[in-house]
Amino acid sequence: MVHIEHYCFAGLLLLLIGCKSNTQSKQEEETVAAHPNIVVIYMDDLGYGDMSAYGATEISTPHMDRLANEGIRFTNGYASSATCTPSRYALLTGTYPWRNKNAKILPGTAPLLIDTAQMTLPKMLQQQGYYTGIVGKWHLGLGSGNVNWNEKISPSPNEVGFDYSHILAATQDRVPTVYIENGHVVNLDPNDPIAVDYQHNFEGEPTGKDNPEMLTMDWHHGHNNSIVNGVPRIGFMKGGASAKWSDVDMADHFLEKARTFVKGHKDKPFFLYYALQQPHVPRTPNPRFVGATGMGPRGDVIAEADWCIGAFLKTLEEEGILENTLIVFSSDNGPVLNDGYVDDAVEKLGDHTPSGPLRGGKYSLFEAGTRVPFAVYWKGKIQPSVSNALVCQLDLMSSLADLVGSDQKGPDSEDLLATFLGEAPQGRDELILEASGRTALRQGDWIMIPPYKGPAIAKAVNIELGNADVYQLYNLKEDIGQQQNLAQSNPEKLQEMVANYEKIRGV
Ligand code: NG6
Ligand code: CA
Q1: How much distance in Å is there from the Cα of 505 to the middle of ligand 2?
Q2: Which atom of ligand 1 is nearest to the CA of 105?
């Protein structure tokens, strides 16, 4: 009898221990599932029609396509803006960029645009135990005005939520043309200090304007200040010779940093914002990719970026963490061909249509300015599908907060987690889109563009900006190319949208 009791007790104990460790591992599994690694792969100026998965036939982008075709491919996915800085601001803060008057294309000397007290996507993830990093293009300002590039630069991405940063300050066509890691210019020789000025040249320094004989790439408009690696830039820079980047190695450089980041932090949830510089100007493909597309440098750097993304995904696979990594893929604004350099983008375009079926391009309030490739991929978790839900990069902050169990939400960011995971078809009801300070309202299938003075076409880049002296109203479901202005024939819809627009914008 005693024996039997003994055994029963021991059995019960074992059962309890078994249950407990079962619950424990289940909890661990749930925590891991709720805290996957998160990677945002962000292109610079990649258009809606620049990927095969979005209909391109003249260019092949197998690795970007993998993210879109094996994840959710959004057909109504938007950057908040038709230029870089405001889109990046919205992505990282969940705030409409038009709420911040300084959220416009920034020079390399601009102070940090994001308030260090502001909640950001990486800060929110940090609070949830993530190790956070940015590799690539920043373009959100640095310091608090008057940066000394020879000392620690602060505030920088590290003060707004990134544990690690390895960036280019503004754009590839703007000085300073150096990499900055955690606030320090990489490879800087203290005996050759850097000075940067966007107004005045430094005495004796050559410029694109005065020294055409030194150029390996010609400028078309703008871009005629300091010359670095034979490429004339925006802004003047002196010194820092040993720190200057090599343009043709930039893609490999950022890829290597992204890979190292992943490998070094795979044991803890990480967030990586991998912001590629392509296909923004100057387009400088590595020799391995020159001629890859027959489309000149613009096509070739898209092929190069695609290869980098493939190599990056392979690293996630090799490290055994692809299944535990949610990847968002998108672009900061629409496409442009001639953005200021003579690089054959127009001449060698052939039948390629960077905007796909959309009207306009970068800088435009028409669709191609802001509607961009947008995919969410999570191997084994997200079922491949196509979604026509209206979603914006602005929404990632609140949606990812929901994913990781944070109650920090971006002010204008909608929680569309279920939509981003392919579990719900609904997107937002409405979205304000921005292009160089002008705004429009997308609502359901409709877009309303208020009258704007200013040229209909930006001549230098040959892009329709969306300006007209009348209201424009388009039904995008029936007229994706925005050919039929229905403002006159549908005054009720127009009125409804104008009222809603004014309410949201507070005008
Ligand atoms: C414009 C530049 C353009 C590009 C853009 C920023 C000129 C004439 N044009 O001012 O080349 O650098 O700014 O692009 O200077 S973005 O994608 O970073 O917004
Ligand atoms: Ca851009």
Answers
A1: 24
A2: 19
Q: What is the ipTM of this complex?
A: 0.99
Domains in the chain with CATH codes:
37-183+246-429 (3.40.720.10), 195-238 (no CATH), 434-505 (3.30.1120.10)
Full pLDDT tens readout for the chain, 507 residues = 344 444 444 444 444 444 444 554 555 555 556 799 999 999 999 999 999 999 999 999 999 999 999 999 999 999 999 999 999 999 999 999 999 999 999 999 999 999 999 999 999 999 999 999 999 999 999 999 999 999 999 999 999 999 999 999 999 999 999 999 999 999 999 999 999 999 999 999 999 999 999 999 999 999 999 999 999 999 999 999 999 999 999 999 999 999 999 999 999 999 999 999 999 999 999 999 999 999 999 999 999 999 999 999 999 999 999 999 999 999 999 999 999 999 999 999 999 999 999 999 999 999 999 999 999 999 999 999 999 999 999 999 999 999 999 999 999 999 999 999 999 999 999 999 999 999 999 999 999 999 999 999 999 999 999 999 999 999 999 999 999 999 999 999 999 999 999 999 998
Question: Is residue 44 within 8 Å of 282, Cβ to Cβ?
Answer: no
Question: Which atom in ligand 1 lies closest to the alpha carbon of residue 173?
Answer: 12
Q: How many CB atoms lie within 10 A of CB 241?
A: 12
Q: Which atom of ligand 1 lies closest to the CA of 223?
A: 15
Ligand 1 binding pocket, CB closer than 6 Å? 44-45, 83-84, 105, 139, 171, 173, 221-223, 234, 280-281, 333, 339-340
Q: What is the DSSP string of 42-99?
A: EESS--TTSSGGGT-SSS--HHHHHHHHSSEEESSEE-SBSSHHHHHHHHHH-S-GGG
